[in-house]
Estrogen receptor 2b
Amino acid sequence: MTFFFHLLGVRRERSGYRGPRHRRGGPQSRGRHLYLEAPLAPYASLPQAIHVHPSTMSPEEFISRIMEAEPPEIYLMEDLKKPFTASSMMMSLTTLADKELVLMISWAKKIPGFSELSLSDQIHLLKCCWLEILMLGLIWRSVDHPGKLIFSPDFKLNRDEGQCVEGIMEIFDMLLAATSRFRELKLQREEYVCLKAMILLNSNLCNSSPQTTEELESRNKMLQLLDSVIDALVWSISKLGLTTQQQTLRLGHLTMLLSHIRHISNKGMDHLCTMQRKNVVLVYDLLLEMLDVNTSTSQTSSSPASDMFSDQNQNPYQHSQPQSQTCSEQNAAADHTNTVPLHKPTNAPILDQHLQDMPFQPTVAAQSLVVTHMDTCK
């Protein structure tokens, strides 16, 4: 349930069942610091207006706020030994993903109006699109580096280096192709942050209809917030000096690329679950929970972030893994000698109920720019 604690920024006293927790590095990792660079420079410095409703902001103000929300760069901070093996590359990729997920939750909470949504909607939005958001960030970092994928400033891969991992070349090629297309369009930073927020807010829009007054109110807030994001994107395009027709075409080209990112993320989800089942890589904590949630809910969460622009999201994008099993359950069924640590499978409805009912105690907020692993030996 790590994901939900990070989302809330709080901790509860646990009791009853507690599954084994496995962490990378063991005792030797204590005392290490995860150094993070400053976030993207804001478009314009604005005072913090926590309670300002997004609909009352101008597009320029809204873009400034979501640019201020951008997470800092994160570093792998590991000694990379080349040539890579399948295990070493996948371990590096999952290590970065696990770190980025924590920052992603903090980023989402800083988007104006997101924290006003119901807790259930916040959870569902994040768990439906986390890999898409990671991939869009990867594309943005790589846009000025033709032929390379910049996973972090200290972890850059070219296409050939991916050959050591079975099945990953197709994903690399798709990511490089999407990056090339954004490079052709000369993607601007303001457009990037709008597209990223659009992926988040539209990821779970068409999965179900609101049943209660609270759900309806949260959905209306979500739609208003999505309108603000679209207005901001349209405004940012209008500042590029294009004709009206060119602006319309650019908006279409940018938003149509979101369906491709969804397609790549589905491929990536399948591949990661396969690598875990084959014991090529160990998946831990937050990433494992998100992967299990995505696998167990893929039948009801298959709508891509670009549903509002395209209906090409049906059969081609379905997961190939059995939908009735989570990745943890697939691990157990694959081989009785499998040594991947098994965690209690995530059951989202039950956990949602726990989030509503269990008492919580406040802890330090998760927005810190330096995440420190405390050294107990002073």
Confidence is low (pLDDT under 50) at residues 10-49, 299-324, 331-378. The chain has one domain: 35-368. Residues 35-368 form a domain with the Retinoid X Receptor fold (CATH 1.10.565.10).
